[in-house]
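Hey, resending since the last one bounced:
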Amino acid sequence: MIVPKRASRSSGPPRAAPRNGHPDGDRRETGLPVGPVASSRSSERSPGPARDPLLRMVSLARPRGARFALGVLAGAVATASAVALLATAAWLIATAAAHPPITALGVAVVATRALGVTRGVARYLERLVTHDAALRTLSDVRVRVYERLARTEPVRRFRSGDLVTRLVGDTDATQDLLIRGLTPPAAALVTGAGVVVLSTAVLVPGGVLLAAGLLLGGVAVPLLAAAAGRGPGRRAAAARAELATALVDALHGAPDLHAHGAMAAAVARVEAADAALTRVARRDATLLGLGAGASALVAGLTLWGTLLLGVAAVGDGALSTVGLAVLVLTALAAFEVVAPLPAVAARLGGLRASATRLFDVLDTPPAVTRRPAVPVRDEPGLRIRGLRVRYGPDGPWVLDGLDLDLPPGRRIAVVGPSGVGKSTLASVLFRFRDPDGGTVHLDGVDVTTQDPDDVRRAIGGVPADPHVFDATVRANLLLARPGATDAELSTVLDRVRLTAALAAAGGLDAETGPHGDRLSGGMRTRLALARALLADPRVLVLDEPTAHLDPETRDAVLADVLDVTRGRSLVLITHDPAGLDALDEVVDLAR
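The C-alpha cells again:
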C-alpha cells in the first residue's frame, strides 16, 4: 500500500529558488562538483601565501634529491671536460707549432684522450641518472593525480578533453622541468665558475670579460626569454586544452552532431583551436630563435673582446702566444655551458602554466571527509535526521531538514519532480558528498565517521546515468565482484532478464561498445542493476533506474527491480510515481 509521506523539514519554504535553473544540483545537468560546498572549501586550500607552481613542481622531486645532485655533478663534469678538452687542444696545437720534443707533448696527448672519454662517460651518466630520477618522480606524480581523482572525484569539475590534457601533457611537464630546467642551470653555475677562474688565472681582464659575457648569456638573456615566454606559455597551455576539449567533444558527440547538422561547426571549432595552437607554437619558435640568436651574439662579442685583450697582452709581453690560444678557445668553449639556458627559460612560462593546471587537480578539496568517531547507537537500518545540503555557501538549500527511516528489509520510493533533491540524496547515500547539516546513520553508526569505501560496500546501487565501460559484459560485471565465477555472473543476468537479450551477441563475452552504445537503454540499465546486485550491499539505492526508457520498457525494468529486491533494503529514487504499489512506502520530496 502506498502511504504518501511528507518529508519533514526543519525550516524554510517548501522549495528553494533554483540555482542556475537546477536546484537539485543534478550531476547530469549542471556539471556541479560532487563535493560538499565546493566553492566554500576551495578558499580553504591555501591557508598561507601561495607558492610558485614551478617551485612546487620541483619540490615533488625532493625524495630523489640525491640522484638529481649526482646528475648535476655528472653534467658539470661533462661540460667541464668539454671546456678543458678544447683548452688542452689549444695548448697542444700552439705548443706543437714550436716543434718541441715529442715527450713534451705526451701529457697533453694523454689528457686530450682522457678528457674526451670522460666527457662521453659523464654525459651518459648525467642522462641516465637524471632521466631515471625524473621518470620515477613522474610516475609518483601520476599516481598522486590518479589517487586524487579516485578519492575526491574532481573529474566532473573539468571538461573531459581538458582533463586529459591535465593528466597527460601537464603531468609530463614535471619531467621536462626536472630534466631541462633543473640540471642544465645547476651544471652551468658550477662549470661557469670554474671556467672564469681558469681564464682569470691566464689573464685577469680576459677572465673579467668572460664572466660578464657568461652573466649576460646565462642570466640576462634567459631572464628576458623567461619574461617574454610567460604569456605565450600560458596561451599554449590553454590552447592545447581547448584543442583537446574540442576534439573529444566532436568525437564523442559525433552522432548527435550529424543528426542536427552541427558537425561542420564542430570541425570548424577543432580547426580554429588547432590554428590558435599553431600560432602560439610559431611565436614560441620565434622566441626560441631570438634567444639563441641573442646568446650567439653575446658569445661572439665576448670572443672578439677576449681576442683583442689577448692580442694586446701578447704585444705588451703580459701573455704568451700559447696563453692567447688557451684563453680564446676557452672563452669559445665556455658558452657551451650557457647555450641551453635561453631555450629553457623561454619554456618556463609554459611549464608554469602546466604546473598551475596540475596543482589545480592535486589541490582539489576532498569530496568527502572522515569525521571523528562517535558512540554507536542500537538502531538497525538506515536513519536520516535533519539532512541539509546545498552547493554553495550562499546558495539555496537543495535538501532542508529531510527525515527518513529505512528499517532492514523495508523498500521505499523517493519521488518528486526534477530539481527537488532526489539525486542529491543519492549522492549523500553513495558518499559522493558530505551533508552540510543533519546526520545519516547506518545501523547506528554515523556514515561520515567511516571510511567512504566501507560505506559504499554497505550502501550501494545504481547512480544516475551509470557508466558502462567499453569492454565485455563479463568485465563490466566483475567490477562489482572480481572473484565471481561465470556461473554467478550468469545467475545475476538471469535475475535481471538479460541472458536472452545477450545470447545472440555472445553472452558474457558480448562487447558493450563505448559508453555501452552496443546495448539498448534498457539493457544498459539492467546491466548496471546486475552489477549492483552482484555487489550485494546491505542497502540498495537505485537513482532513476527507469529514466529515458519508453513506458513499456520502464514497466518491465521496474517489475524486475521489485522482483529481485524482495527482502532487501531498497531506496528507489524516481520522478515517476507510477507502478510503486508494491513498495512499503513512498516519500514525496515535493510535499
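The radius of gyration is 34 Å.

Sorry for the duplicate.
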